[in-house]
Amino acid sequence: MDSVLGGTRAAAAFQTLASLAKRVETQTGTSWTEDYGTFVAVKRLWDRVFPLLAPTPSKELQEKMAEVSPDKWPKEPEPLTLQEDLTGPNKPDYSRGFLVALLGREQAEPQPPEEAAARAETERNVAAWAEYQREIQPLRSKLQQLGDHFRLLEDIGEGVAKDAVPELRRRRSKED
């Protein structure tokens, strides 16, 4: 029987799922294969339990997953204000006048200290965000590769399901 179910480990997993389904059936008083409500309860249980039955990922996969774990990401800087986003360090400051911004010259009168401090703070914030984006780019790339790998595996499962589902529906309609 183990070989029919895919080996000893698979047989043990199926026995575990069956025993858990039996617990639900005991509570509802009906079989999960005959009562839709019980089926939903069993499915929810299996959705929660099934990942616990998964084999341990390979060391290589564990390392790839560890590389992109949330604790490896840099701390996100404070969000930019609209003013900072509009007047970053390489953008003209239109608040100082259209012609001044167009000509790229400072006004003749000196900048008030508060305005100079605000401009310096804006430049620091925009620079912090640019640095953050540079730091997370390699992590995003690794995460994308890992996601592509799992999507490929999911696509394999989807392909098998596309073949199996019509056959299961035909069987079911013959039973009904």
Write the layout of secondary structure elements.
Layout: H1 8-28, H2 36-49, H3 59-67, H4 82-86, H5 98-103, H6 113-175
Helix pairs in contact: 1-2
Structure explained in plain terms:
- With 176 residues, the protein is an all-alpha fold.
- It has two domains: 46 residues; 117 residues.
- Helix content is 67%, strand content 0%.
- Helix 1 crosses helix 2.
- The chain is elongated and about 90 Å long.
- The two termini are 28 Å apart.
Task: Fill in the keyword field for this structure.
176 residues, 2 domains, elongated
Summed up, the helix count is: 6
How many structural domains? 2
What amount of the residues lies in strands? under 5%
Q: Share of helix among residues?
A: 55-70%
Main sheet makeup: none
Assembly annotation: single chain
Q: Could you report the average pLDDT, rounded to the nearest whole number?
A: 82
Using the alpha-carbon principal axes, give the shape: elongated
Poorly predicted parts:
none
Number of strands: 0
- Sheet/helix structural class: mainly alpha
CA-CA gap between termini: 28 Å
Outline:
The radius of gyration is 30 Å and the shape is elongated.
